[in-house]
Amino acid sequence: MAASDPLTENVLVLGAGELGAAVLEALSSHPQRGSITVLLRPSRSSIPTSLKSLGISTLLGDILSSTENKLASLFAPFDTIVGCTGMTYPPGTQVKIAQAALVAGVTRYIPWQFGVDYDIIGRESSQDLFTEQMGVRDLLRQQEVMKWVIISTGMFTSFLFEPSFGVVSEDRNTVRALGAWENRVTVTTPKDIGRVVAEVVWAAPELEGVVFTAGETVSYEELVDILEKVLGKKVKREQWNLDKLKDDLAQDPENGLKKYRVVFAEGRGVAWDEGMTINVKRGMKLEGVEDWLRENSK
Q1: Is the dihedral of CA 121, 127, 128, 132 positive or negative?
Q2: Mean pLDDT value across the chain
Q3: Which residue, 213, 216, 228, 116, is CA-closest to 168?
Q4: Backbone phi, then psi, for 102, in 5-degree steps?
């Protein structure tokens, strides 16, 4: 498709995990959908059963073992690439994918940056994965050939309740504030991220740069109130201050969860006002924390 054509006709989604599956389902159900293909590892040659009836094609390719040029040859037939995989990839992989999309001549690239605002957090955060994401942004901003959209979503809503993360205990009797009770965090469910991606891909060709979405932005104080309302019981409150969390990380510097705790305790780039989001501007109602908790407390 020529770069001047405002609409995507042919989209390739990288990965069919939790996020990729949600994106694929939303892309396929959008009223303005075009052709959809998912890139899968050769060892996983079929898409999830739940997606088989949606008219999605498959393309086999290994992102890790492929060279930049090999990836570019896989990407070249498509107008838009949507990255939905990367949590376990080694350093440099996301930059390789972005460079391959540029070499391939695709019209539009939506990278795997469905998370926090890396521009505000900066390059010196405790989470080294975030530093590479800044490298991807540098690459995209230094070129003028390929359109790109980064969709900042905050953390998955479910991760806020993940016992290993530590904010909400497994029995949901305790909430631990990271840094301070007034610190806020933005969360969005994968399903709603998929809906926003589909809207951007099929119906918002004018969007470029960094945009934001939010199921809800809450403080840890408000999170306690939500739990007590939904569960009908008092919830214990603990505060993990920033110094404690930094000390914890210093004792275990390769622990990814402890890196995340420090980032969220610092409170920069992890929350934004819902009024500035693409979902509010386009009249899309997303699932908030209370609704998610009710659905997942049955």
Answers
A1: negative
A2: 93
A3: 228
A4: -65, -45
Closest CA to 192 of 285, 117, 87: 285
Structure tokens at 157: 């809503």
Helix (H, G, I), strand (E, B) or coil at 254: coil
Q: How many CA atoms lie within 13 A of 276 on its CB side?
A: 11
Predicted TM-score (pTM) of the model is 0.94
φ, ψ of residue 175 to 5 degrees: the values are: -120, 135
Rounded CA gap, 282 and 207, in Å? 12
Which tokens hold the place of 79?
């107008």
Q: How many CB atoms lie within 10 A of CB 10?
A: 16
Residue recorded with tokens 């899309």: 284
- Residue 87's pLDDT is what? 80
Pick from 21, 8, 2: which is nearest to 80 by CA? 8
Determine the Cα angle at 209 with ends 205 and 210, to 5°: 115
Q: How many Cα atoms are found within 13 Å in the side-chain-facing hemisphere of 226?
A: 20
Residue with tokens 């929350």: 271
Q: Which residue's entry shows tokens 């930059």?
A: 95
Kindly report, residue by residue over 144-187, the tens digit of the pLDDT. 999 999 999 999 999 999 999 999 999 999 999 999 999 999 99
Task: Provide the terminal-to-terminal Cα distance of the chain, rounded to the nearest Å.
Answer: 48
Task: Copy the structure tokens of residue 73.
Answer: 């040859």
